[in-house]
Amino acid sequence: MEIPLPAVTAMVSAMGTGMATEAGRQLMQLVGGLAGRDGRAPDSGADWGPLAQVLCDHAREDPEIALRLAHIMAMTRSTLTPLAIARTPQLPPTTQYFENRRPQLRTLVRGAGRRPGPHPRRAMVHGEPGAGTTALALRFGWSEAQRFPDGQLYVDLRHDTDPNRALRDALRQLGVDERRIPVGALQRRDTFQELVAGRRILVVLDQVRSVAQIRPLLAASPSVFTVVVGHRPLAGLDAERVEVTPLTQRHALRLLTRVAGKEAVDALGRAVDGELARCGGRPGAVRL
Description:
There is one protein chain. This protein has helices at residues 5-17, 22-35, 49-61, 63-79, 102-113, 133-143, 163-173, 185-196, 211-214, 249-260, 262-268, 271-279, 283-287; strands at 121-126, 152-156, 202-206, 225-230, 240-243. By secondary structure, the chain is α/β, with parallel strands linked by helices. The chain folds into 3 domains: 5-79, no CATH class; 102-243, Rossmann fold (3-Layer(aba) Sandwich); 249-287, no CATH class. Strands 2-3-4-1-5 form a 5-stranded parallel β-sheet. Strand 3, helix 9 (211-214) and strand 4 form a beta-alpha-beta unit. Helix 1 crosses helix 2 (22-35) and helix 10 (249-260) packs across helix 11 (262-268). The longest helix is centred in the N-terminal third of the chain and has 17 residues, at 63-79. Mean pLDDT is 82; it is low at 41-45. GO terms for molecular function: ATP binding. Keywords: ATP-binding, Nucleotide-binding.
């Protein structure tokens, strides 16, 4: 079996470029096994010709090596081709009980509709626990889905402060095969930024406590609209602030009526005022 030298050179070069990934390292180990002591990857990765020549020579001398080399070349084409978004991410479902957040929604819609310019488009949704910050971000995303034809990415950082693991979650949602997710934090960040660059996509980063926690996930591309959700504004985050305040008594009563039904609310009588006062205007508490 005759395997062209240019094709083998292109293969080992692709492997060298993909060495940051687990798949790239595994493929290079397979190639090293075929080349034996006669071939080694260049330290700089600049010239792959000698290694490719050794592989071709061995393949001409041994048909079994030629078959194995052809198999590795096929694996390289399937695993080390340029990455692209392979899946359109979607937001998780949100509550059907939503009350009086029109001003905040208008602010988010205005931010999403702003023409892309030299600066990233970001919003910081903040409010005390139970105020409905997550519900607001999700309601906005679902109601404005047509603005984001390339998808809506949701990363929940409630139980994980490691940005590297959050990047892994984001890349998975974008359809990147597990074997092609880089191991290093910088490589993961660069991969994420490359994938979303120029895409009309919404990124919701929920339950954020610090800018350091999300810095690698803050898209630099102005085509991306990022909504950060947290209990308070984050120092050092360049984003339009959207405060979610407690519901007024009137709106809390309307929400309770929608959740429990008018008959149940009427049965409480005057006690309903005390129940709502204990909820403190927090939609999460009212829904419970």
